[in-house]
Design goal:
The chain has about 625 residues and is α/β, with parallel strands linked by helices. Strand 25 (about 500-505) and strand 26 form a beta hairpin.
Length: about 625
């Protein structure tokens, strides 16, 4: 090959490469939205939250209790997470006692035997908490315990650092006689923030002490007694949810019928709550009971979506429709009465006795959970029996089926989706052509499952793409709740990968997918605007909504491609558009980028201004980005 030919060949090669690059680079597209064409109404309850006891979401998570295994139910023979502190009395012992408990619900206790007393370093019992007991400076902690003793004397309650053995907070109370509840407070000094601590209850006199229901709470959200962690509640509040679906999915059903969520065993005093095993391989304290869920809704000013047990548990145990199911239906009716009944009703009066005289507003009740797993095919009959029974007493309630039905049309049907980002991209038009004559759709559980323990930015892109599809069809899709909501990131704290919010005992963080939720939930109008995309951009997703009161138009734009994308925005039917538009952007350099407990703010929304907005302007989305443009129109 001579030199000139090689030169010409090289030039042609470069030309072909440049042509190929041009053909593969994103082409400009136009997003046209006709403000005169309102496709439908955005559901006022579109975005909410779904919760259940998984990944230590309640115990060791949102529920602020710091003592782990406080009633010794985790293992009947071994006081897990409890240790003997011998102090100056090496002959002190502890063991679970099956014969002495403070109530019929709590038959176990931890028996501390002290043959030799010591006032200088008294023997006692210690709890390691949920991966530590957190301490913050100058903070008040409230606690209590039940105890009985054969020898009256002092009990010293302390928070002690694991490494230095330094006492960070301490108080003392005297105990005597048979079972009684003892309250105490602890106030920390100027000690630094730490989690590497334990709580100790030490006996200063010889004899035997039986302990049960040992509890310690830090400050809680809205100062609720038996309340929730402030940092996690604040993150949930920032999502601006409209509902809470509870008490959970699998947690509602249990592995077996006798392990289901029995709401009547979760109300009233903690000493009368027997606790129960959860399907996620740890024991539930049931401190987060039915009324606590309702308080959670009250604190966030959102409505409850109550799921009631409907006769199916996950190990293929089910109750036949008919007389066998009647007691379970009756229990569900009692539960609804507890939530909504006046104080003149039996269960409304019980709610008032428990501390909340006013009834709660309830619109939606879900009958069971994921009953497509029931191989017996009994759900059609079970749902019909519940539907008839509940509607007879509460005709105004909207009842949710957990699977499509053949024999009747439910008010709402619950769809669940756990997918990859690509699967969501490919199915973003899923609800475009669904029959609008009903039933309505509740996307009760959904998530892009990429990243661990919390979603990476690729998941956030998949989520955002799917949310544009739900928004455009929110005349049909009336509610949607990401799941799972929470995960304890400590070793052993996670049973399900890819969870929205991560935390340890001290701190918490939002994943990129969390911030996508915050952006979407907080910036949506009440009208679905007819819009279309002209041009080819396979990884570009959008939705357009408008506020009928303010005239603000919300453009949601998702660029899941690896290159920037130019988009011409064409607003038809807008007499004037303010030149200054708010731009909220969430982006990353790669889909694998993420947040973590040690780097919580790698990916967070950034607000800026587009200074040249109009009814017709061009905007460029960065690669791997989720953006919201707020346009003020008149």
């Amino acid at each position: 090959m001579n030199f000139n030919f090689r030169k010409q060949f090289a030039s042609l090669t470069l030309l072909f490469a440049a042509t190929a690059a041009i053909s593969q680079s994103p082409q400009p597209v136009t997003l046209s939205a006709d403000l005169h064409q309102v496709k439908g109404s955005v559901s006022p309850t579109l975005y909410g939250i779904m919760t259940e006891e998984i990944n230590f979401s309640y115990d060791g998570g949102l529920y602020a209790e710091l003592v782990r295994n406080r009633t010794f139910q985790d293992n009947n023979n071994n006081p897990q997470h409890w240790f003997i502190h011998e102090g100056a009395a090496p002959d002190a012992t502890m063991q679970i006692d099956h014969t002495a408990g403070p109530s019929a619900a709590l038959p176990l206790s931890l028996k501390l035997t002290v043959p030799t007393a010591s006032t200088k370093d008294a023997p006692g019992i210690e709890n390691e908490g949920f991966w530590g007991i957190p301490i913050r400076p100058k903070t008040k902690y409230t606690g209590s315990f039940y105890a009985k003793t054969d020898s009256a004397g002092p009990i010293t309650i302390s928070i002690v650092n694991n490494e230095s053995a330094k006492v960070l907070a301490s108080t003392q109370t005297a105990i005597s006689g048979d079972w009684k509840k003892y309250d105490f407070t602890l106030t920390s000094g100027v000690a630094p923030v730490s989690a590497n601590n334990r709580i100790r209850l030490a006996a200063g006199k010889t004899g035997t002490v039986w302990f049960s229901l040992i509890s310690l709470f830090p400050p809680t959200y809205h100062d609720r007694v038996n309340g929730n962690r402030p940092d996690l509640m604040e993150k949930l509040a920032a999502m601006k949810p409209t509902f809470l679906r509870f008490p959970g999915g699998n947690y509602l059903e249990g592995d077996h019928i006798n392990e289901r969520y029995e709401w009547k065993k979760t109300i009233g005093s903690l000493v009368d709550r027997p606790t129960h095993p959860s399907p996620w391989r740890y024991h539930s304290s049931d401190g987060m009971g039915l009324l606590e869920f309702l308080y959670w809704c009250e604190d966030l000013k959102i409505q409850p979506v109550l799921a009631v047990y409907a006769g199916y548990s996950m190990r293929q145990e089910f109750v036949k429709p008919g007389p066998d199911l009647d007691p379970y239906l009756a229990d569900a009716l009692d539960e609804i009465e507890y939530v909504t009944g006046s104080t003149a009703t039996k269960w409304g009066a019980q709610r008032a006795k428990d501390g909340h005289p006013a009834p709660f507003k309830l619109t939606y009740v879900e009958i069971g959970n994921e009953d497509w797993f029931d191989k017996s095919g009994s759900y059609e009959g079970r749902y019909a029996q519940y539907y008839k029974g509940i509607k007879a007493k509460y005709p105004e309630l909207q009842l949710i089926a957990t699977m499509p039905l053949k024999e009747m049309k439910p008010d709402v049907v619950d769809d669940h989706y756990y997918r990859t980002a690509k699967q969501f991209y490919d199915d973003v038009h899923h609800y475009d052509n669904i029959d609008r004559n009903g039933p309505k759709i509740f996307v009760g559980e959904w998530a892009t499952r990429e990243g661990t323990p919390t979603p990476n930015f690729g998941s956030a892109l998949g989520d955002a793409a799917w949310m544009t599809g739900m928004e455009k069809n929110s005349d049909l899709v009336i509610m949607a709740g990401y799941a799972p909501l929470l995960v304890n990131v400590n070793p052993g704290g996670m049973q399900w990968e890819t969870d929205l919010i991560g935390y340890d005992v001290l701190t918490s963080y939002g994943s990129p997918a969390y911030y996508a939720q915050v952006m979407f939930d907080g910036h949506v109008g009440d009208q679905i605007i007819t819009a279309k995309l002209d041009g080819t951009a396979p990884r570009l997703f959008y939705s357009v909504t408008r506020s009928s009161t303010s005239g603000t138009v919300y453009l949601k734009l998702v660029n899941a491609a690896s290159s920037p994308q130019s988009v011409t925005i064409d607003l038809q039917g807008a007499p004037t558009v303010s030149k200054a538009a708010k731009l909220i952007s969430l982006s990353a350099k790669t889909p694998a980028a993420t947040n973590s407990i040690t780097a919580p703010n790698n990916i967070v929304p950034v607000e800026s201004t587009i200074a040249t907005a109009s009814s017709h302007f061009t905007h460029t989305l960065p690669a791997y980005s989720i953006q919201i443009i707020e346009l003020k129109t008149k």
